[in-house]
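[step 3/7] fold_predict: job queued, chain A
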Amino acid sequence: MSPKYRLASFVVPALCAAFMTVNLQAAPVENKPPVRVSIQDIPHLEKRDGMTKLIVDGRPFICLAGELSNTASSDREATKATIARLAQANFNTVLTVVSWDLVEPEEGKFDFSMIDYQIEAARANNVRLIFLWMASWKNGLSHFPPLWVKANQDRFPRVVNAQGKTLEILSTLSENNRNADATAFAAVMKHIREVDKTHTVIAIQVENEVGTMGTTRDFGPAANAAFAGPVPKELTDYLQTNKDHLRPELKKIWDAAGDKTSGTWEQVFGKNVQRPADDLPVPNSPNRSKRPAGAELFNHTDEIFMAWNYSHYIGYVAAQGKKEYSIPMYVNTWLVQPNDIGAGDYPSGGPEPLVHDIWRAGGPAIDILAPDIYLPDFAGIIKTYSRNGNPAWNPETGQNANNAWMGFTQLNLLCFSPMGVDGRLNAISEDPFVRSYGFINSISGAIAEAQGKPDAIKLIELGPGQNPGKVVMGRYIFDFTPVAGTRGGPAAGERAGAAAPATKPDAQAAPQAEGRGAIVGLSFLDKPFVLIINTAPDEYYFATNASFPFVVSPNNIPNARVAAPAIMERGAFKNGIWVMQRRANGDDIMGRGYDVSAAANNNLSGSQIPLGVGGRGGRGAGTGDTTPPPPSVMRVTFYHYR
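[step 4/7] structure written:
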């Protein structure tokens, strides 16, 4: 959430126990057993269909989300109005801040009102919440701790830079800092568990874009002693145990240093390659040119050291929170920019790709490491952060609906969330992003169910006069070819060429706009298309903005000669739940006449599925008004017989 471009993400197992940062002396923190709540009853991550899915109220759920600006949630009435407006704009999830300074203005005295009014507003508007716990760090800096923390530097020490100056950044090498944050976070999670019986809150972001800014690492006395000391055995054991599965960025560094399993930080990970003395770390430096392709980043060992300390600190905070209420927790990242040359230009120690394995080892209570994406290679970034089983999660980005579509349908993305939607989005206009979110929301439950299943989502973009032709998908073959003289086919005398099948049935998302300023809608909504989503062996969802009635036949189903629609419903998903508008049957499906004997002789049932805006049919794409109407969605369950 900073005014620059960046990215990041990765996963860590969600099973956690309380642990102490190895560089700290263990402080007495209440070590009570976790509250026992059935995982089936609360939002959680679960392996299904070869991937990790977000499960909300027992169903896979994708977050069509938007993030409010940093301090928006401190305005009670404005926040309520914003949540209502975002619900009208087709968002199903809102990312919003809970700040430590407002929750615990005096030590040990808690005010949960900002949690309560946000949950109440979201519940009233049937949207979900993801809370951002702004506590020790936001964009690397410590602006959100309460005054009793900020004003007592002796008790709550700060980061010291290489020049010996204290920064407004709480040190990770302090048990007082960590325990104060963890105590407040545990109280927040307990309160959410007690008041949120309808699972309005579905995930938590712990801190925000952490790392040391403008310095490669913490140079305070405790940090210097730890850096000169041995690498913790927990980390070297992890490296040894997982040496065949380490991410290549870290493995390259460890291999180059000799794959040592003990020693100081510079012995195990190599001596720091120091940046030029006349080019000190400066975030978003306007004077530095783009980093040469393939150039190594400076001070990698400092960054690895800080990653271990941040992951231990935040992992401990998350673990204490999960003892109270164990819903998914993630950490987001401000990533390396093209003109950065080393740690400190970007927050040093945050979960960049280089240090994902360090975070996995140091913070097992953290479920996901997630990229904040403002660079153009959206797909490449998500793929980078989805390695080794890490769920794809994008908590901060620009309003680019093409990226959302590509992420949800091709990259198994669980959350897409443009930043600052409270100040920039006009929910009542024909905003292209709002319109696009509306369509994705209308089929969101089907997408969530189909994610991870092979070949389960097919988008067919069409030109004037085209139809999808025959589409083979799963257990069935769908034939959209019009038949002259029938409802849904070309009228007598129309040219057969007006119904040519599409030549490119598997469309990819359009190129992404760079930066956070552009608002991009789904281009395929402005021309004829058919979307098919296969959620179960005999269950399919179809969406189109034209009229494409079709017939169905079995695709190599044993003992099946004929296939037919059993149940057909027009409707849409509303925040992940299917809502039927109308059942189709009877005359609706007789668009090709009543000669069922002739159809049977051709191994067809005689029923025509009336897909599209024309009710029982229409004359296919390419006729009449060229402006596509809003898409319609149909759920169809098929059966077969001999």
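[step 5/7] annotate
The two ends are 59 Å apart (CA to CA).
Residues 300-324 form the longest helix (25 residues).
exit 0
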